[in-house]
Amino acid sequence: MIIMVVINANFNTFPEIPILGYVFSGFGDEYEYTIDNIFRKKNPPPCPKCDNKMVHNGFNLHTKKGMGGIKIGKYQCKSCGKNLEEDPSVWEELKTLFINLLGEFYQMLRLNHVAYNAISKLMQFIFPQSKSTIFREFNRAMENAEIPPLENILIVHYDEQFPKKGRTQKYRLTILDAKTKRPVADELFDKKDPETIKRFLSANLDTSKPLYIVTDFYSSYPSVLKEVFGDNLIHQYCLFHLNKLIVKDFPRYTSIAQELLKYKLLNIFYNREKEIEMLRKLELEEIEMNQDEEAYKSWIKIAKKAFYKYLHELELARRRNKENLELNSLEKAEENFNELMDQINSFDEEIKKRLKMINKHWMNLTAFQYFEGAPATNNAVENYYSTSLKTHRKKQFRTEKGIIYQMKLASMKRAGMFDGVKPTLFDLFGLFRPFAIH
Ligand SMILES: [Zn+2]
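Above: inputs. Below: predicted complex with zinc ion.
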């Protein structure tokens, strides 16, 4: 038989017995819930001061606004006059269950960028709460949230974002675990000088173990990382970022010949053979069209339009098949690169510089080839940024805390803290039903 509180039901409380049984399930049968709805010990305890037996002496009413209340029994010692109240933790726990679930509800709304004002309006339908109460409860829930730690960190992304607090520039430094896509560290700073980055990295990563890290091409990274990790460092530069630099090396309005060269450079690390094939055909036409300047002007427009349309089709096909742009093997990359290096003297200065740069950092551009599952780009962290502080939102937050909490929410989501089956708010409203104050 389950030992539980003796519930002295009357006509009104009778239907609520299952709920009361659940609420009081942590208490033994030395407790009672009286016909007058008082929660207390059946036999008053001995006086903590003089050890004489105490007597029942009324109650204190504990309430939760909008939800109801409970009468917690009081005892008195007839010998020495000592007053004692029964432990009200049963009520506190019930309130905590409710408040925590409400807090989680606010977190979910904030994670999806719902404004406090809008949350307050939504709550009018559920459990009316002012905007300031919601703000306070959300902040409390954020302070209390503890994110479970990550294990076996080896492959990480590092990137920076520059959100604004009002007009003040802030610097968000992020280390993202490549495997779980969860942040190892995600913090806000007033500056991002080498010293700040060094402190951030050494505080959050084990510098005595091998580390594979992906970054963009910011010029101070190699020396900063080398200093922190020494020989344990495997540094991959983001290939997606390299692609962007290559595209910028060319003018906005390119000839087909220039476009072909651009794709040959992009083809070093990614398979762009299809694009190159089309551009080669167009280039042959271009050579002929170049005889007539006027005719060329209208021809190039049509040719470029056809090429962009083809690019778009290739991209749509990849998206349909849920594929990324295919990375070339190490051998293929070397072959494509060497072919360009053989002709380096025929290229413009910008392109010469780019090829020399690729040559110099070859190891940092191909490190991913040597490690199973190692990423070649920082797309994962870019994607993480876009889900936590969206670019149009990162412009301004009223408070620094607002930015930090938004970062923490994204991390909690990646940790799976919002997954799983939870009680509904209505389940919890049900638990309060027997305690309604009429
Ligand atoms: Zn006493």
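The two ends are 34 Å apart (CA to CA).
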